[in-house]
């Protein structure tokens, strides 16, 4: 028997035992992601049918691409691949990344994490967002950097390093996760009129170098498989691809 036991939770019960659970979570950008945990495919299918009947679409989920059984379960429920993201481990040692001598472009200075001013930080974020929206679409960005439903960007100067030129910021790098354990490069972006000048490499050199001096050996990053420039940058500094995730959607 499938029962909705709370607003965001479903149980599959057989006799007096819970043999499967389903739940939902709402991301900062308003999208609803679903998750199902069960031992048997038949139970998964019943939970998926009940949840999809109760919930408005579109719905999303994320799976490890190596988990073929789970991917197949979601596909039976009508989900299809929306995008693939590669998971990388980035070394922080400048002797490995060869970023130790990466020069800052002329006229550009790096403002370290925690020192960025909020107003110009928001301005560069909005400018980059508009440029991405006009090309591949902002929805292609990682969920953690998407604006909330009210349009508020998830910006925190304490987590951002920026590249400054003249009186404005031209690029930013957001460090997510716990810096003392496994920091994550959540967003690295440069304004379109300042790309291909080494700004992104300079930001990455600064942040990874700072992490290395703090005793952190690696940082993680997720890169959309369609982002050729980001893939090339990650691999050029010795980043190691560890896994891949699929974002699935049913509409």
3D architecture notes:
Helices cover 27% and strands 36% of the residues. By secondary structure, it is of the alpha+beta class. The protein has two domains: 2-85, Gcn5-related N-acetyltransferase (GNAT) (Aminopeptidase), CATH 3.40.630.30; 87-244, Aminopeptidase. The protein has an eight-stranded mixed beta sheet, with helices on both faces. Strands 1-2-3-4 form a four-stranded antiparallel beta sheet, with helices on one face. The longest helix is centred in the middle third of the chain and has 16 residues, at 118-133.
Task: List descriptors.
Aminopeptidase; alpha+beta; 6 helices; acyltransferase activity; 251 residues; transferase; eight-stranded mixed beta sheet; four-stranded antiparallel beta sheet; GNAT_dom; GNAT family N-acetyltransferase; 2 domains; EC 2.3.1.-
C-alpha-based Rg, rounded: 21 Å
**What is the structural class?**
alpha+beta
Shape: elongated
CATH superfamily of the largest domain: Gcn5-related N-acetyltransferase (GNAT)
The helix fraction, in percent, is: 25-40%
Q: Supply the number of structural domains.
A: 2
CATH topology of the largest domain: Aminopeptidase
In round numbers, the mean pLDDT is 89
Q: Strands across the major sheet, in which order?
A: 5-12-6-11-10-9-8-7
Quantity of strands, as a count: 12
Spell the H/E element sequence. EEEEHEHEHEHEEEHEHE
In the CATH scheme, the class of the largest domain would be Alpha Beta
| Proportion of residues in β-strands | 35-45%
């Amino acid at each position: 028997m499938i029962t909705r036991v709370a607003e965001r939770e479903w149980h599959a019960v057989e006799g007096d035992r819970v043999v499967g659970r389903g739940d939902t979570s709402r991301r900062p950008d308003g999208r609803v992601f679903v998750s199902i945990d069960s031992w048997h495919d038949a139970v998964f299918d019943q939970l998926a049918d009940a949840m999809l009947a109760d919930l408005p679409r579109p719905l999303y989920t994320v799976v490890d691409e190596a988990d073929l059984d789970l991917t197949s379960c979601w596909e039976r429920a009508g989900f299809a691949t929306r995008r693939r993201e590669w998971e990388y481990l980035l070394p922080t040692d400048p002797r490995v990344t060869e970023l130790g001598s990466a020069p800052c472009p002329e006229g550009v200075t790096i403002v370290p994490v925690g020192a960025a001013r909020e107003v110009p930080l928001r301005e560069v974020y909005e400018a980059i967002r508009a440029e991405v929206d006009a090309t591949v679409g902002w929805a292609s960005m990682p969920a953690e950097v998407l604006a909330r439903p009210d349009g508020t960007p998830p910006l925190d100067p304490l987590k951002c390093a920026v590249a400054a030129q003249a009186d404005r910021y031209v690029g930013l790098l957001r460090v997510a996760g716990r810096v003392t354990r496994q920091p994550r490069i959540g967003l690295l972006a440069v304004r379109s009129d300042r790309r291909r000048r080494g700004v992104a490499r300079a930001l990455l050199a600064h942040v990874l170098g700072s992490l290395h001096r703090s005793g952190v050996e690696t940082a993680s990053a997720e890169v959309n498989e369609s982002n050729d420039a980001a893939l090339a940058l990650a691999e050029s500094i010795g980043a190691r691809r560890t896994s891949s995730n699929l974002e699935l959607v049913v509409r």
